[in-house]
Amino acid sequence: MTEEKKAKLKVAAKAPKLADPIAATIDTATQQMIVRAQQLGIDTVFDRAAQMKPCNIGLQGTCCKNCAMGPCRLPLPKGGIEGEDKRKGLCGATANTIAARNFLRMIASGAAAHSDHGRCVAEVFMSAARKETDAYQIKDTNKLIAVAEKLGVSATVEVDGETKDRDIDEIALEVAHKALNEWGKPEGELIYLSRAPQPLYEKWTKAGVKPRNIDREIVEIMHRTHIGVDQDYKNLMKQGARCALADGWGGSMLATDLQDIMFGTPYPLQSEANLGIMKEDHVNIIIHGHEPVLSEIIVAVSQRPDILKYAKSKGARGIQLGGICCTANEILQRHGVPSAGTFLQQELAIITGACDAMIVDIQCVFQNLANVAKCFHTKLITTHPIAKMEQENVMHIEFDEHHALEDAERIVKMAIDNFTNRGSEVMIPRQKATQIAGFGVESIQYHLGGTFRGTYYTLNDNIINGRIRGLAGVVGCNNARTRHNEAHIAVVKELIKNDVLVLTTGCNGIACAMEGLLTPESAGIYCGPGLKEVCETVGIPPVLHLGSCVDNSRILLAATEVIKAGGPWKDLCDIPAAGSAPEWMSEKAISIGQYFVSSGVYTVFGVTLPTTGAPVFHNFITKDMEKLYGGKWDIEPDPIKHAQLMIAHIDKKRKEMGIDKARERVLMTMEDRQAIER
């Protein structure tokens, strides 16, 4: 071998491994942008995933770093465990204790992320109720009255023996006080627990897992998992369930309700999804994160005539907003702002060269965005006091609800001014798809029942008669350890092919939109005959997009409405339904999964579960937990097998409820219909 060839091989050996675009994602727009990034020498999450192997012991959940004597690493023996498991950390903590503590800390972090989001919304709601800001008002008074009732706030008052309606501002102020009190009240239990079906509430009471307030349950997890405190995995998981319920039936549910009151309850609308929504001749502003309090105002400011005129004065034809992650879902479902992409596409939006500003708030924001932005003209702007970046090229404009309009105008004008600095090498993929989004508890009720019936009766009837086999909540993030969007799409297609109606949130919703599954027309292509008939009759997609990850509470409430509408079921665990997170990666997903399990829902995760290194603990959450709550965890990385597990569970529930055989279809007479009404 010549010296020249040796030198070339040496250089090649030092070159970092790059991702294979085809192996990294099923989305052609993403494939194109990965190639472009590699040609420009810009590393992305896809390349970093190819270069860095995950820690196997960490994946199993049996690495403890909760004190300075560790980390204590307890890998499974190569041949597995036969007989007694003698693995211990320095303090004597067993693999089950370590895995349970780690699992709980993920629940605590996820619940904190969702609930702190909710607290911020509640604080802005308080400012709106006090008339301290012109930027926020009560937009949906009907939702305010409905929420007030759930919080024990009366909408009427007795005056001289007469019942009169209270002033809306007065109701809003009391709702704000009641809501904020849920984070730290000194006694009692979360008010929203009463929204659950009575049998489920009784299970929580018997198990001793009713949350007292939101913050306390998170703090108690951190205490229990400190060295030398709780050392019983079953007792630990009792607190895990309580904390997760404080998220799903507390912080997240309050966030969704208060956002609907201030910004409007979503109803179905049409939009688009994927990187192709960006426009070369427009100012492109990408909004990324999870809190809609600032993005709502940015949407409003960007539509003002004076701002559009200013954009045209800089040579742009207009302003194109786009969203990434759950901020995308928030501004999509209320305003039809198109989704630019999922969690793993955030760097790629900048790599188009057409992103004039990316505005980020909290959660799921890559620090590497700053490094990517250095290579382009993009202004990267952080806006939240708890979420800054250390890089010098990142600008921080701290959001304040009392000056929201001024802050939003400053940010939008900065993006417009930056349009003139755009380079000539712009590459926007052409791929984009139409989507119908903006579903919720109220709109599902309307679409399936109409104003005539106004309940979930029609949905229940079609589940009972077999046209709809069951319901599936398919939610969650993307994970760079899997092929981007592949599991999301494969799971959903397998479900709807088998007549399972899918409710989606988060990045799964965006992935389904990119694949064209969020249109009524897709039912005729992908659905089984029963679901196809329902979708075509009603005019809905087979996959209903309910919003952001904090909006998973909408799925819980929709399932509760199924109970209320009547049928053979009395509890959430009776319904032929299952939950799924095919490509999860966030601690929020673990909190979501646990509050669904604790609410009685069989829940399957893809990728991995950080519990497999402790077989006894893993067996507890995947089998024994069902005896406590009616729901349990499961894991299946293969997307088809994943969906088939869900379908098998749905079929099991149909059999238990005595609806496993399709009813004979009969033509109803007017007398029959009148009998139903009676």
| Cα radius of gyration in angstroms | 25 Å
What is the strand content? Answer: 5-15%
Q: CATH fold name of the largest domain, please? A: Rossmann fold
Main structural class:
alpha/beta
Spans of at least 5 consecutive residues with low confidence: none
Quickly count the domains: 3
Q: How many helices does DSSP assign? A: 28
Instruction: Order the strands across the largest sheet as they lie in space.
Output: 8-7-6-9-10-11
Instruction: Tally the beta strands.
Output: 18
Helical residues, percent: 40-55%
Task: Produce the secondary structure layout.
Blueprint: H1 3-14, H2 21-24, H3 28-39, H4 45-51, H5 56-60, E1 63-64, E2 72-73, H6 95-129, H7 141-150, E3 156-159, E4 162-165, H8 168-181, H9 198-207, H10 214-224, H11 233-263, E5 269-273, E6 283-289, H12 292-302, H13 305-313, E7 319-324, H14 325-335, E8 339-341, H15 346-351, E9 357-360, H16 369-374, E10 379-382, E11 394-396, H17 404-418, E12 433-437, H18 441-453, H19 457-464, E13 470-474, H20 486-497, E14 500-504, H21 506-514, H22 523-526, H23 529-538, E15 543-545, H24 552-564, E16 577-581, H25 587-597, E17 602-605, H26 615-629, E18 633-635, H27 639-656, H28 670-677
Parallel strand pairs: 6-7, 6-9, 7-8, 9-10, 10-11, 13-14, 13-16, 14-15, 16-17, 17-18
Antiparallel strand pairs: 1-2, 3-4, 5-12
Helix pairs in contact: 6-8, 6-10, 6-11, 6-25, 6-26, 7-8, 7-11, 10-11, 11-24, 11-25, 12-14, 12-17, 20-27
